[in-house]
Amino acid sequence: MLRFVRQRVTASLISLVGLIVLVFFLSRLTGDPTNLFLPIDASDQMREQFRQLHGLNDPLIVQFGRYVWDLLHLDFGESIRQARPAINVVLQAFVWTFQLAVITMVLVTLAAVVCGSLAAFNAGGLFDRFVSLLSLIGAAAPDFWVAIVAITLLAVKLSWLPTSGTGTLWHWIMPIGVLFIRPFGLILQVVRGSMLSTLGSAYVKTARAKGVRTKSIIFVHTLRNALLPVITVIGDQAASLLNGAVVVETIFGFPGVGKLMIDSILQRDFNVILAAIMVTALAIFVMNILIDLGYALLDPRIRY
Amino acid sequence: MLSTEIVGTPEAIAVPRGTAATRVLRMLYRDKLALCAGIFLLIVITCALFGPYLLNDIATRPNLRARNAPPFSLAHGWLAVLGADALGRPLLARIIVASQNTMAVACGAVACSALVGAVLGLVAGYSRGRGGQIIMRLADIIMSFPSLLLAVIVLYMLAPSVGNLIVVLAITRIPVYLRTTRAEVLEIRERMFVQAATVMGASRMRIVLRHILPIVIPTIVTIATLDFAFVMLAESSLSFLGIGIQPPQITWGLMVSQGRSYLANAWWLAFWPGLAIILTTLSLNLLSNWMRVVLDPVQRWRLEMRKTEA
């Protein structure tokens, strides 16, 4: 077990280092933030001072060395835009995205497992077809389009919900609803498929022959075994939820890490980009490891 | 290509007549949903190929009298049947013209990623050397991070153009093909006919290209169809965020984003291009589902049997 965790952590760290190197040099290539932050009529001396202050004068390799050295001391540098430690800016935004992602994933999982099991139990039935159609459309709809159609309908025409921002519980409904659609369809299909194959297995037939109630066959006997492949997909989807979060946060003005990243890229706030990437990547790695350990909990046959 | 010969049909079942192509078409005709999807995609492809040459003038000429003209009226010509945008340009014409850029990016990205991914997958799967390991680790790095964010960063560095968009989207999608191909190759290379070919003295190149590749191709084609939808959505998202294709060029995602400012009084500006995206991706998904069955020799058998019975 420990050996497995150690292996995974090393592999993750290597990917993380690769990512940092890639993003560090790519982001520096986007250009000099000096012109963006100083007024047009700033003197050469002021520009020089700005570059000196943020260490933009040195050769790239020296900048990189300094960045890594600071990083080893857990110093993520300073945000040029907000003039406070980059890591604080990122963590503040990350908490928002984290909440959004966790709430969405919990709802998606619950809904998909219940609907998927029911669809599989009555395969080919009306409910099954309806749910399959729903998941097909969900996989095809671009989230930004769903988001603005929802805003037009629910916020502008009917004024039931606020258009954007945060504050009350009502503000959460549309972002979660939009993020919900795609993973719901995908996970539902996996639950359905996995349930179908488990329902065909011998021990389920035995349970039926014994006269066990339908409800407990689905939710006690089958579901536990059918959940294994589902967990993998949930992990994948949670990571790609961040893709959706970028779009959804931008549209709904949600102060999460996706919006922060887009803003920082546009404004060349390098330290914030890097810190944001590290925090998200770390979160994804931790989640992946937890998922692998979750296998062992669900399936006693798996040992690391 | 479709590896019909590999299956071999037992004498007991009536052998379906005609060439492989007509058999496939007949199977497509049986599945009405897939047929609709196929026809719709054909229309989209035709629009993408010829639309800009026929309609570019109309789609870019402003007409102030038709500003935000509502849909379902023929007052401003049949091309304005879906309404007109803020400068009075007919939406239907613009959607048709925009299909070229949307399709070009998606086709290019899918073709590049499938090609590179398949080649690397064949290498990683067939040679057990260190090279394969390095390729897989690189794929892990790409997979470990949300692709849209990576695309945003890279695109911001390069100037956004059709070519760069294709490269960026292709890079983020390579691991999908790479992993699938490698997994298939690892399994196929242990089969008897590969060993037989080795014993007969076939070169490694010949084994990979003539014996392994034909079996892998159907899988790659199926994934590519599904991935086409994904890439289209990704491109639209990027255009929507303002880091994809830049105006005056248009794509469907860009049209949605431009229509966003007029949501309150002219919903059709953002609605129709979005619907075009949905219908296209939906068709691709349906077609990919159908292809998964048809290109799989084991399952296609059942389809053909059902067909001859009917």
Describe, in plain words, how this protein is organized in 3D:
The complex is a heterodimer of chains A (304) and B (310). Chain A is mainly α. Chain A has 2 domains: 2-72, no CATH class; 90-303, MetI-like (MetI-like fold), CATH 1.10.3720. Helix content of chain A is 78%, strand content 0%. Chain A contains 12 helices and no strands. In chain A, helix 5 packs antiparallel against helix 6 (126-140) and helix 7 (143-157) packs across helix 10 (214-252). The longest helix of chain A is centred in the last third of the chain and has 39 residues, at 214-252. With 310 residues, chain B is mostly helical. Chain B has one domain (25-309): MetI-like (MetI-like fold, Orthogonal Bundle). Helix content of chain B is 73%, strand content 0%. Chain B contains 12 helices and no strands. Chain B is globular and about 75 Å long. Chain B starts with a helix and ends with a helix. At the A-B interface, helix 1, helix 6, helix 7, helix 10 and helix 11 of A face helix 5, helix 6, helix 9, helix 10 and helix 11 of B. Chain B: Residues 99-288 form the ABC transmembrane type-1 domain. Chain B: It is found in: Cell membrane. Chain B: Keywords: Cell membrane, Membrane, Peptide transport, Protein transport, Transmembrane, Transmembrane helix, Transport. Chain B: It is a multi-pass membrane protein. Chain B: This is Peptide/nickel transport system permease protein.
Key phrases:
heterodimer, A: 304 residues, mainly alpha, MetI-like fold, 2 domains, B: 310 residues, 0% strand, globular, disordered N terminus, membrane (chain B), OppC_N (chain B)
Number of strands of chain A: 0
CATH architecture of the largest domain in chain A: Orthogonal Bundle
Number of helices of chain B: 12
> Major sheet of chain A: size, sense and barrel closure?
none
Poorly predicted residue ranges of chain A: none
Largest interface: A-B, 44 and 39 residues
- What would CATH call the class of chain B? Mainly Alpha
Strand-residue proportion of chain B:
under 5%
* The CATH C-level class name of the largest domain in chain A: Mainly Alpha
User: What would the average pLDDT of chain A be, to the nearest integer?
Assistant: 80
| Rg measurement of chain B, Å | 23 Å
Low-confidence parts of chain B? 1-14
Decide which structural class fits the backbone of chain B.
Answer: mainly alpha
Spatial gap, N to C terminus of chain B? 27 Å
Supply the CATH superfamily name of the largest domain in chain A.
MetI-like
**SS-based class of chain A:** mainly alpha
Say what the CATH topology of chain B is: MetI-like fold
Task: Label the overall shape of chain B.
Answer: globular
CATH topology of the largest domain in chain A: MetI-like fold
Helix content of chain B: over 70%
Family (chain B): Belongs to the binding-protein-dependent transport system permease family.
Pfam family, one (chain B): OppC_N
Domain ABC transmembrane type-1 (chain B): 99-288
Organism (chain B): Faunimonas pinastri
